[in-house]
Amino acid sequence: DVQLVESGGGSVQAGGSLRLSCAASGYTVSSTRMGWFRQAPGKEREGVACIGRDGITMYSDSVKGRFTISKDNAMNTLYLQMDSLRSEDAALYYCTASSDYWGQGTQVTVS
Length: 111
Hints:
Blueprint: E1 3-7, E2 10-12, E3 18-25, E4 34-39, E5 46-51, E6 57-59, E7 67-72, E8 77-82, E9 91-97, E10 101-102, E11 106-110
Parallel strand pairs: 2-11
Antiparallel strand pairs: 1-3, 3-8, 4-5, 4-9, 5-6, 7-8, 9-10, 9-11
């Protein structure tokens, strides 16, 4: 079975940083495009960042320059470094593998 397990969420003050992790099992993060999405209450799920098999990254305009997506193929883990957090970044963050598999999410709160 494929499992994606996010961690690293929490509560932080505006301007602070968090690093999210997504540990994959039954799936190889190097084999496909991996990404992070988020969903805030009352809003639609939105794409935040993705990283291709070749390591090329893409970001939504709202996080560009503040968030960094990366992966450790040896650890089979996806990361999202989030800096300069804003109140509008508060959401449930999900990782996904090719949009076929999804984790349960990790909550980020910014006060």
